[in-house]
């Protein structure tokens, strides 16, 4: 069998060169190129894993930075004021995702197209949304506006002021009288 | 022949530097910066439509900022910080168009790579800074100042990047002009 194989190889070597099958090679090349493109375009496991991990790490660092600890004792505190914490977390999360999206788009080096337009529109929407939200928050909490509050009694203040003024006037009159004497 | 990059750089300086942070009156008003921008874009050697658009945009922004600054000088800013932030957003869009124009001009030139890299980083930093500053309104009171500061730092980075880019452009422009003089 081995001898026969060698014979075959020799025969093949001696065979005059034919033109390569152009259609076949083109097809092969196209397939190879397609697979290459697919491989580069597909999200690898590394990216799928690293993006949420970095997000979690950033969130963790931020929560440590704000002074929240992860003890169970303090977990009870979260239930007292859950709404505010939730809004804070949502704010942070939105901010990070949006800035990461912007970084991604410009890191990819896009100069025009839908994604670049989206970065502008999303950041503008985030700004407007924040303004609207802040406006509503201030309406809900009158403590934030120090200039006016319903709980404060203006009439009593006026009364006190009048009293003080009267006392002051009396004092002035007395001093004047002493001076006259 | 005047250097258009000088005028663009002056424009960026005037828009960025704001002495009202230190309690002084704004000695480098933004609208003068936008006028510099318009003149610099006018000097750039191209006939693309982008040039016309960005020049008109610069003039519109100059008018808008003039009224905003007028309000600040007179002491009754109706919108307060909102107007300033809106102008900042418009400035980012304007810089996007300027960079598009610069990329078009520097196509197949030795400075193209530098332009592109500066565009990437500048836009990313400016937009991230803007987003962070926008979200800083709703962050907890204790963190608000810090978050706002982070946004400002990012925008300062963008400013420095533009300074480096300007230096490269300046050298490139000088080289071209030197060659022209020698050929004469």
Which labels suit this protein?
heterodimer, A: 181 residues, mainly alpha, B: mainly alpha
Architecture overview:
- With 181 residues, chain A is mostly helical.
- About 6% of the residues of chain A have low confidence.
- Chain A contains 7 helices and no strands.
- The longest helix of chain A is centred in the C-terminal third of the chain and has 27 residues.
- Chain B has 184 residues and is mainly alpha-helical.
- In chain B, α2 runs antiparallel to α3 and α5 runs antiparallel to α6.
- The radius of gyration of chain B is 18 Å and the shape is globular.
- Chain B starts with a helix and ends with a helix.
- The mean pLDDT of chain B is 84.
- Chains A and B meet through α5 and α6 of A and α4 and α5 of B.
Summarize the structure.
Chain A has 181 residues and is mainly α. Helices cover 79% and strands 0% of the residues of chain A. In chain A, helix 5 packs antiparallel against helix 6 (114-140).
Q: Mind summarizing the main beta sheet of chain B?
A: none
Largest interface: A-B, 30 and 27 residues
Share of β-strand residues of chain A: under 5%
What is the typical, i.e. mean, pLDDT of chain A? 72
Q: What value does the Rg of chain B take, in angstroms?
A: 18 Å
Oligomer: heterodimer
Morphology of chain A: rod-shaped
Radius of gyration of chain A: 39 Å
Portion in beta strands of chain B: under 5%
Helix/strand order of chain B, N-terminal first: HHHHHH
Runs of chain A with pLDDT <50, length 5+?
Answer: 142-152
Shape of chain B: globular
Mean pLDDT across the residues of chain B is 84
Total helical segments of chain B: 6
Distance between the termini of chain B: 15 Å
Distance between the termini of chain A: 146 Å
- Total helical segments of chain A: 7
Instruction: Tell me the helix content of chain A.
Output: over 70%
Helix content estimate of chain B: over 70%
Structural class of chain B: mainly alpha
Low-confidence stretches of chain B: none
